[in-house]
Amino acid sequence: MFPTLCQGYKGILMGSLPGASLLLLVFTVPLLIGPSVQAGKIMVFPVDGSHWVNMNLLIQNLHDKGHEVTVVRTATSWYIKESAPHYRSITVTLPQAIAIEKEDFFVKFLIKMLEIKREGSLTGFVKFYWEMLNALSDIHKQASLLGVEMLENKTLMQSIRDNQFDVVLIDPGLPVGVLVAHELKLPTVYNVRWITSGEGHFVVAPSPTSYVPTSAHPVTDKMNFIQRFKNALFYILNTCIDKLVVCPHYDRLVHKYFGPDVKFYHLLQSADIWLMRVDFVFEFPRPTMPNIAYIGGFQCKPSEPLSNELEQFVQSSGEHGVLLMSLGTLVQGLPSEITSEIAAAFAQLPQKVIWRHVGERPSNLGNNTLLVKWMPQNDLLGHPKIKAFVAHGGTNGIYESIYHGVPIIGIPLLFDQFENVLRLEARGAARVVDAAKLTRQNFLEAVQDVLNNPSYRKNMKRLSALHRDKPMHPLDTAVYWIEFVMRHKGAAHLRTESYRMPWYSYYSVDVFVFLLAFLLKLTASVVGFVQFICLPICRKRKSKQE
Amino acid sequence: MFPTLCQGYKGILMGSLPGASLLLLVFTVPLLIGPSVQAGKIMVFPVDGSHWVNMNLLIQNLHDKGHEVTVVRTATSWYIKESAPHYRSITVTLPQAIAIEKEDFFVKFLIKMLEIKREGSLTGFVKFYWEMLNALSDIHKQASLLGVEMLENKTLMQSIRDNQFDVVLIDPGLPVGVLVAHELKLPTVYNVRWITSGEGHFVVAPSPTSYVPTSAHPVTDKMNFIQRFKNALFYILNTCIDKLVVCPHYDRLVHKYFGPDVKFYHLLQSADIWLMRVDFVFEFPRPTMPNIAYIGGFQCKPSEPLSNELEQFVQSSGEHGVLLMSLGTLVQGLPSEITSEIAAAFAQLPQKVIWRHVGERPSNLGNNTLLVKWMPQNDLLGHPKIKAFVAHGGTNGIYESIYHGVPIIGIPLLFDQFENVLRLEARGAARVVDAAKLTRQNFLEAVQDVLNNPSYRKNMKRLSALHRDKPMHPLDTAVYWIEFVMRHKGAAHLRTESYRMPWYSYYSVDVFVFLLAFLLKLTASVVGFVQFICLPICRKRKSKQE
């Protein structure tokens, strides 16, 4: 379970997601709908790594609509460049780079985790978990310094004020933008799946643990008693981590800059619109809120023709077709004994294989397997010869697979990937293999099952049809609601302010205690009345009669 | 509070809502979006009265899209005609007409309620409440007989099966269609605001009583302790009414036809899509579910030019403008002493007044007031000379007012009208006058306040702008999701099945009892260990040392 603690910061970058505007054939709605909006000014607080890939796509689209976008980045940023044709930037220099901005952060993490899982020692696990909590705390401590640097810099803040932004677009995985937006009194929109230390819904919508799997707990929405019990424990644990490990770093700032009456968690909950990178063909149905708009798969688009060489390779597979494999940017972190097992399994397949692989070339690679450093993943997934996709289970790749209807063999490595592939497995559209226990036999069996049993493809095609059947393309939905907030200076009518209530009021604990006290008092009064008034009278009458 | 018990059956008919297809200028999306759907077959279970006005509009639109609509009606139906160009019908003869199909049902009800309110006697209230519960029970008993008549009629059911319907569209105020759909194994879509005995959300979404006003309790989403306490009591009361008064009639049928394992309430909760006649410019923000689509105000459309006479009357008002009044079809039920007070107040206004009035003409009517038996309400509300609207607070009229940005003076009479006008009052877009305490003075004061204080109009204009700013017209949303269910034979991926869990599992009561027991056991073990192992050892050591 432990790999999901830091899931707000997974570093998986899909090479196949250029920041271009999308137009899907299946969505026939024109891009500009609803009342038109004047070109506005948008300040963006992104998170580095794979999160940036998504945010950049949205920024590109906002720019194409005529809006002026300004991105706040740190000087040590990994992916977020200082200048691009579609945005300007504000670069802040921090005393120390944020850990997740270092490219080897996640690789080290993965190697350590696989070691621990193989050893299976409880002490090792506890030690690792403790280290992870510390790493999480450090990341947020470092990120909060971005807030300090900005809020302390009066010149910078004045220049931002002078710029008269209309809205702040935030990836709340690192929620510094929330503080800046509050200082500037600007409405906010989140581009979110992970927030602080858990899944976004848990901060804004009711989440009954009886059927909503909590972050870091890979179960479906149909749990037995033990699973529900563990789910409740994970909920408590996640809440504790949020309140004790993550939030204190930001609460210190909030206390300093906005006084003792403002709570960071309330600021976090007060976003006008939550653009949730979720679709219910993937996520289990669960309570939601009126100010959540679902944009899961907003990066998906039809495939384009392959290069000549790649097309030739694909066609050479004949009737057997092609298997695709990519474990994201972290694949070089997989130990060679695992890649060797995978290569051996591939060699036994009649299919051709295209394997995106950055590390050392496995010595036992079959003739049917083509190693590539980068591949046009979306174009390949949309190719009719592709029969299945071996993936780590990052959501970008999962949504592309759903979009094109390609079944998955999941080898989850880190963070939310375990829960992600489980969601597809529960729909009969994927098989999952444990990386720590992977052998050529069990991997081959899983691959052959997905390739030869038509139900996986059928189920994925069904998900694809459901996913594509929307009133509006998810990217247009995202742009629509950002412009909505700009037009109306917020979306207060869609946002409950119940989060401002004390917890005992929110959960009606005070009401039920009062009700219970009242009922007890009533019972006591009735008993007292019978005992001290009725019974003596009866006795008196009886004795008189006697 | 009591007037809302029967609110599923309010009989307010807006004369201005012909069943024509709508095309709003502000919504520039073409009507047909998303994947095209083949013409399908739709079976409809409507509810008579004002509910039919809405359903009929939707049916008209579905017919215009090429779908074949069949409406199930009773032989004694009040508004639902046997034949119309846009639908066919199945007419079922019941042993007795359903009470709400009698035109005087609501009039009698209103007169009785006003009497009780004026008297203010507790005994009278309790007696009235009891009568209402009986009436509610009778209505559902009568309605359930429609189920019996259909399910027992093998020839009818076979002919329906032969018809191969794609979807059943139901107004679940009287939920007989739910049983028939279950028997036919067909997917269902609800056109709903009120269901059995309360607001629709309460059956399908989490509804924390700390900030979600329960049905029949006119409060806002910001409650003090006493309000929250009463809100919880109303929630318990409504649940009891649902489970003890309403559902048993249908549960008997479910038990007879589908066996002991099927629960009526579960069938009720299992609709694929809930088309909720709600918009959050009107409703307070609250938890929702992925299979709820909001279509509040789907009947709204731009106004058309008035007749010459009406236009002349309106123009004759000069700079003062015109006040509109309509209390729906029940206005003839208002006692003459109230209409007389209203007429006296109107006579003192510099504005002209158009009053839709069906009963006896008040003797003290001013020269400025035009009585009409029917008026083109939507066209008038969209006229720039109309300054305010005196309304009873039915949702049809309220949404038309919001759409056109006309502030309201509310005189709520029955059912949900008290809650409806309160929602607008909380937004500063309406003033509310109690019909039972109405005098010419307090009524005039309220009218003048709304006419002369620009904030009411400004707030209503703001609501109007928010209401009109949608990615898609609500009527298109309704059609889209009905067609979605037809395309995919349901929408199971959007619907949680958590309602099938026992309540103690759903609310995690078993988990918390187990957790508590575990913690108690742990504490007892620790205490026992210290008491019987550690302390004796310490004592022994101490005595040895001594």
Automatic annotation (TrEMBL), chains A, B:
It comes from the Eukaryota. One of its GO terms (cellular component) is membrane. Keywords: Glycosyltransferase, Membrane, Transferase, Transmembrane, Transmembrane helix. It is found in: Membrane. The chain crosses the membrane at residues 12-33, 511-538. GO terms for molecular function: UDP-glycosyltransferase activity. The keyword RNA-binding does not apply. Pfam families: UDPGT. Belongs to the UDP-glycosyltransferase family. PANTHER family: EG:EG0003.4 PROTEIN-RELATED, UDP GLUCURONOSYLTRANSFERASE 5 FAMILY, POLYPEPTIDE F1-RELATED. This is UDP-glucuronosyltransferase 2C1-like.
